[in-house]
């Protein structure tokens, strides 16, 4: 087992200058099994980059950037049963990217604590993968893009704040997506292609939009709940045994459901 830990761009004293903390690059590469890699770039460190590459099984990668702006994290794992985790706290204009190819992998991206204009990208190929992205605690104008290709995948997203956008895509069987947005003017766009997919979207606030498509599959389920003013929900399904539930409260809401096939069920409730 190999363990690598880099502490980059850490200001130990309150009087440390920005020149000691900015524009750093951490690059890690591990090949084998049961490896651990960690990168830490904190304390008002701006424009820093962290790159982590692991090839093998049962590896772990962790990257932490906090109290800074314009930072970038890139994690790549090739193999099975690998785990990656990214944490960006109090960031403005930072990006986090995670790529995993294999089976039984897990990826988590945290962008939280009064952050804004941050972006998170996660891609998983294989089966039995898990993915979680959260942008919360006063996070505004953030963007999350999630892609899973395989079977038995799980996607979970939490966004708290205003003007956040989420894109997701799943290709395979028995996929599950759970998205929770709390704030105003949030947007969710998603696509599921496969069998027995489940999408659950919950939005609270004003002027929110959710658009989800499940095409050329069977046994899919979509549930969208919106609470507030002037929401909009659009659902498209193609296949067999699909079900769509949309619940909207307050005024000036709009919902549309398109189903192609047989034994489909659509329920829309507006108050």
Tertiary shape = flat
Content-based structural category: mainly beta
List the secondary-structure elements in sequence, H or E: EEEEEEEEEEEEEEEEEEEEEEE
Spatial extent as radius of gyration: 20 Å
Side-by-side strand order of the widest sheet = 1-3-5-7-9-11-13-15-17-19-21-23
* Number of helices, where a helix is a run of at least 4 consecutive DSSP H or I residues: 0
Strand content: over 45%
Give the fraction of residues assigned to helices.
Answer: under 10%
Mean pLDDT: 86
Spans of at least 5 consecutive residues whose pLDDT stays below 50 are 6-20
Biggest pleated-sheet summary: 12 strands, parallel
State the domain count.
1
Strand runs, count = 23
| CA-CA gap between termini | 59 Å
């Amino acid at each position: 087992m190999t363990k690598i830990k880099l502490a980059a761009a850490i200001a130990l004293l309150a009087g440390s200058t920005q020149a000691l903390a900015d524009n750093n690059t951490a690059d890690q590469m591990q090949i084998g099994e049961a490896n651990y890699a960690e990168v830490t770039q904190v304390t008002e460190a701006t424009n820093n980059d962290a790159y982590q590459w692991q090839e093998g099984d049962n590896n772990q990668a962790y990257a932490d950037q906090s109290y800074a702006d314009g930072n970038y994290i890139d994690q790549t794992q090739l193999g099975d049963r690998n785990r990656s985790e990214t944490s960006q706290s109090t960031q403005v204009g930072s990006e986090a990217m995670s790529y995993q190819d294999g089976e039984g992998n897990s990826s988590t991206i945290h962008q939280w604590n009064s952050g804004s204009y941050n972006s998170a990208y996660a891609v998983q190929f294989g089966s039995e993968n898990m993915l979680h992205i959260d942008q919360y605690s006063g996070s505004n104008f953030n963007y999350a893009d999630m892609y899973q290709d395989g079977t038995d995948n799980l996607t979970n997203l939490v966004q708290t704040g205003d003007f956040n956008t989420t894109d997701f895509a799943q290709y395979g069987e028995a996929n599950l997506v759970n998205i929770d947005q709390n704030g105003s003017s949030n947007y969710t766009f998603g696509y599921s292609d496969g069998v027995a997919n489940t999408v659950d979207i919950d939005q609270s606030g004003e002027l929110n939009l959710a658009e989800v498509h499940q095409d050329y599959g069977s046994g899919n389920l979509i549930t969208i709940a919106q609470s507030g003013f002037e929401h909009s929900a659009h659902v498209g399904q193609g296949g067999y045994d699909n079900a769509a539930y949309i619940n909207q409260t307050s005024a000036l809401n709009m919902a549309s459901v398109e189903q192609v096939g047989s034994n489909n069920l659509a329920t829309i409730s507006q108050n």
